[in-house]
Design a protein that fits this description.
single chain, mainly alpha
């Protein structure tokens, strides 16, 4: 179910962003754009379901596609769909993606370290999940609760490494 929802979201993003991809290639991101991206990511992390952030999320996604110097790898690390609704699933995916973008901006020397990037994404997804739980404690997901426990126990990096080996092409 999660894969179907994620696939639909990615196809939707691709269709929405196709006109932008056709633009002439642009140069690398500017310091101002990177600062703006981090600001938008912090807004999202503070309130992932805020409908007023729609334009910021769109800008981040388009910007990430357009700039040649910020590269984010996408992997289905979290392979189980939150059972409550698609909104939460999309927010968790965005939390993962935006955390990876922030990592790429803040650690340009690790641009090609896909494992570190995926680790940042897993952490971002879990931070988003925690925010969602604060808003609605009944939306607990055993799969994500297990990952929170792994994070607390210090075993999340090993889980990410194993999951990447099984599900991704690093």
């Amino acid at each position: 179910m999660f894969l179907r929802t994620l696939s639909a979201a990615l196809v939707g993003c691709t269709l929405l962003l196709a006109p932008f991809a056709a633009k002439a290639e642009r140069g690398p991101s500017t310091p101002e754009e990177r600062k703006q991206a981090l600001e938008y990511i912090h807004h999202f992390e503070a309130d992932p379901l805020n409908p007023q952030l729609k334009k910021e999320k769109e800008w981040l996604t388009i910007w990430m596609i357009e700039v040649p110097d910020i590269r984010v790898n996408i992997c289905l690390l979290l392979d189980k769909q939150p059972k409550n609704d698609k909104k939460d699933a999309q927010a968790i995916f965005n939390g993962m993606l935006f955390a990876q973008i922030a990592f790429a901006i803040e650690h340009p020397e690790q641009q090609n370290d896909t494992l570190a990037q995926y680790q940042a994404g897993a952490e971002g997804a879990l931070r988003t999940y925690e925010k969602l739980l604060k808003a609605n404690p009944k939306d607990q997901q055993p799969y994500l609760d297990d990952l929170l426990q792994k994070r607390e126990a210090g075993t999340l990096p090993q889980w990410v490494k194993e999951r990447v080996a099984a599900a991704c092409h690093p």
